[in-house]
Structures are given as structure tokens and as C-alpha cells.
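sorry for the late reply, my laptop died twice this morning and i had to redo everyting from scratch. anyway the thing you sent over, i finally got around to it. pasting the sequence first so we're on the same page, its 627 residues, then the predicted structure underneath. double check i copied it right bc i was rushing
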Amino acid sequence: MKIMTTLGSALLLVALPLAAAAAKPVIETQDDLPRHTYELNIKVVDLYAEENREVLRELADQVQADVEGDLAKYDIRDDNTVQGFYSVLGTIAILEGRWQDYLDYLGKRRELESKDANRLTMGLFGEALATVELAGKGGDAEALQAELTRLVEALPYSTVQDNLKSGKGRSEILTEALVLGNMESTYQPLVDNTGGEISYDVASTLVSVSFTLDSFIPNRAIVGTVYADYIAANDVAKVDIWAAREVVLPSTAKGSPVVLSVWDSGVDTSIPGLASHLWTNQNEIPGNNIDDDKNGFVDDIHGFAYNLKGEKVPDLLRPIEEKFGVNPADLQGHAKGLGDNSSNIDSPEAAALRKYISSLPQEEIPAFLENLSLYGGYAHGTHVSGIALAGNPFAELLVARMTYSHTQMPPKPTIEQAERDGAMFRAAGDYFRDNGVRAVNMSWGGSVRGIESSLEAHNIGDTPEERKALARKLYKIGDEGLREAIGGSPEILFITSAGNSDNDVKFDEFYPSSYEYPNLLTVGAVDIAGDETSFTSLGNVDIYANGFEVESYVPGGDRIPLNGTSMSSPQVLNLAGKLLALAPDLTMAELRQLILDGADDKQLETRTIKLMNPKASLALLEKQLAE
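ok and here's the structure:
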């Protein structure tokens, strides 16, 4: 903290020792948080069996002591982290029957929440449960339903409707088998690899799941009924603000071809709506398995591709049916059903998904979850590309494929793999520059803590501090490569999604959304009405676009809606492509400014955000061209 120099020297001599004594160590990034470890000597799923309740409570007591110690010792400069600590303490309070303590922690969490909808809907079921217990009516289902109804009906529907619809959907698909199967496949391999030593992140999750299993799932029908009744009584379709802002360039417009890239999981280039937009490498002969133009890539006709190991491959879309023996059409139905169920859309796919999950035994949950993740990566780049190209006949798509992991156990982090990833990032930057790309979308990211978690899963590092240091080293290798790709391409606009973790990307050091470059825009997500989504990350967001129920192509050519900042980011790429098509000589600074100057300011309770407005940005360009 900077000390005010207007104070006299004598006063400073007195004040400095007092300030130093009172100051706490400051935590400015997630990586600065202290590490805690715990011993777990039973199977993960056995932790929740009645005969092992004492083991669960002992683990909870250790976690509570560490959380309370960290809150007392450190000045943590991130509200989401502190809020998470209070959430864990609240769960432990419920586990121990300390109902008023839970309500007190809930109040503290709400004070730290910046999103109106999240604050209003936070802990509703827990609040109802605690209130009923304190009134001496524990176990009375009618009293619980009445209290939850009272709380829900007091909410402003226009503000909370998306969260309530998502909560209703969660109550309809969450089963004990789903929760336990997920926990077993995610954490049991880690516990086995480490000999039972687990980090705070794992331990706090295991403790928190007790609330889901003990309290939420037995009462999920009550939650679903209360939410469904409130939604049915109040539901009015939100007004779509985006249709009026949309601009479609006619093919007869005076425009120039513009090369755009979607740096993602690959694209189904056979879809007619995308095939007509493909950039073509004129110096490469298709199908001869030769690097004709000597650029290091074989048969890179419409772009380049890397597999999960960071190796160059020819396929611009991962062949999951051939490689994993799955039917993409079946997985597409599950993915659409999951999204529809979360948005309170009673589609055939949503109904089929609910029925399917309800019948799944615990041992089949891991394969189901991994297949959903596999399809998510498979479809992601195609969906993003459809959004980026819509309404722009001058856009040429250069496909840039990387490959995402889909397994519950993450890939093993190594120096060699980090170096391959860093080389991939640099090569991508070179490729974009060499082939005239003007703007790139990046709906992905990573963090140093994510690497540390993967190291833990594989029991790499003898101590938490050693693991932390290695994670930083691995992170730096990839981070430097990505920074070189972006910073070394000053005439290319890079556009990235903020993330879907409702976190501060700068505190968490999430790349690339935490970066600040003059040729980078970070995009958050709002819904069809321009209301901030519950999931969108914060901390470094330049502009917001629609990321809720956005329809686009998936492999095979069908169109389905998906949610996420992954869907909002390519809408900014879409706008950039249209501006560049009409004015190819725009400098990077001019392009970026047109996007930001055309955006509308929206005042939230705690801050102002910018909503993308293509029509306004294009009008500003038209005015500039006329001058």
C-alpha cells in the first residue's frame, strides 16, 4: 500500500510500524494461496457411507481449520475465492447441523457476489432447509416446500429466470449414481496414484458433495416442483435485443475477401454452409501426402491441425467415430438434451436425456460423461465457425485445429509436452501471419492451477511446493509461446472467450483471457436480452455478446443451440470480419476501436459493461468512409 506523502516525517515514523504490524500478507493471484494436504484412507465413494461418517467429519474439520486459518491470516484480493471459502464452511456447518452458522456464511457469500441473479438465487434451497430446521420442522417435506416457495416467489422473475430454469434442469437429472459415478471416476484414480494424499481443492470438493447427497438429491423433486411452478406462473419470453443489431452483408455489397481463423477443435468442412467459405492454400496439391509449399504442414489445403500430443496431423476434424467407436449422432442428442434441459426447453432430446440418466447405473456414469466431453470437443469448433461466418459472404475460413482432452483423468503434464504446445502456439502465429489472416477466434484457455491439478492427479512432485513450482514452469513454457503468437502478430486481431467459471481470470491467471494486448479482445457472455449470464467469467472483459442458447452448426450439418462464452466470442469475430470486408485497410487500432465504440454501455448494479452492437459499429465505419 502506498503511504500518503502529505503526512509529516515524524508522523510517518510513528505510523509505519503500526501499519506493518496490522498488515496481512496479500494474496493477489490464485497461485499465491497456501497449499494444504490431507490423508484419505478409504475409497472416495465410501466416504459417504453411513459407517464412514466419522471419517467424513474428520476431513471436514481439517478443511474447516485450514479455511478459517487462511481467512484470518491473509488479505485475499479476490471475492470469488473468499466466497468459495464461505461456501465450504457453510457446507460443513450443514454437515454438523449448525444451521444458523450456515445462514451466516450464506449472508457473507451474498455480500461478495457482484452478479444480481447469482446473489438472489444463491443458496435458496440451503436457506429453506436451514430455516425449517431452526423452526423445529426438520424432515417435514411440506414445510420445506412452503419455505422454498416463499423464498422463490419473493424474487424478481425477470432477473432470476435463467438461473431458476437451470436449477430446475439440474434437479431433474441429478441422481445419486450420477454424482457418485462422477466422483469415483474423477478422484479415485488420483487417490490411488497419490497413496491417499489429496489437496485442498480435492478435499473441499469431497466434503461439499455431502450436501448434494444428503440434502439436495433426497429433496430434488421439491426443488423441481417449486421452480417449475414459479416459472410457469411468470414466464414471459425475453425480448431479443440482438436481432435489431444484426447486420447481414449482401453478396452484392462492395466488399473484399477477408481471411478469418477459428483456432479451435476443428471444423466439419463438408457442411455446405461452411464449405462455401473455406480459405484455400493455392500452393498445396490436395491428397498427395506431400508438403508441396514446404511450410511444415502436409496437405494443409484449408488450414492446419494438431493432435492431443501437439503433433501435426492432416485431419481438420477429429475422427471420433473411427478412433473411439462412438456414434456422433447419439452424442449430439445427449448434448442438445443437456442444453435444452438446462434452459427449460421440454424437447424430445431433453426428455430422452432425463430418461437415459435416470436408468444409468453408477458404473456406466464415467463412460457417459467422457463421451459427452468427447462430443463437446468434437462439435465445438464447427459450432463456433458457423457463428463467426454468418451473414458475411466475403469471409474465408482458415481452419486451425488443436485437440482437447476429454477424459476424466487429465493427460500427464511433462516438460516435453509443454514444449510441443509452446511450439504449436508459435507455429500457429507464423501460419496466420504468412497466410494473411486478419482476425482469429480463441474460445479456449488454461491456467497454472489447472496444470497443478493435473500434476496432482498423476502424483508428480514430492511436495505441494515442488508441484507448485513445476506447474509454474510448465505454464510459463506454453504461456510464452502463446504470448509470442499474439504479441508477434500486431496486425491480427485475436478474440478470446472470457471463460465459463464465474471467476476473475486475472486472479486465476487464465490464459489468454487474462492477457492485455492492443490486438486482443476478451469477450464475456450475456443472454438474448443482454442480461449477464451466471457463468461468464470476469476480471478482464472488454465486451459482451450473446452466449446463451446460440444456434449454429455441429458436425453433420444439423444446427443446435449451445451456451457459453465460446459462443459469444465468435460473434465479435463475425463483426470484425464484416468491418474488414468493407474496409480492408483498417489498422488494428481502428478495427478494435470501431468494435468498442459501437458497443452500448449497460449499467449493472456494481459496474458498467459493453454490449456488442454490430449495426452501430458498421454505421461508425460508414461515417468514417464517407468523410
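Residues 250-451+478-626 form a domain with the Rossmann fold fold (CATH 3.40.50.200).
thats about all i looked at so far, will dig more tmrw
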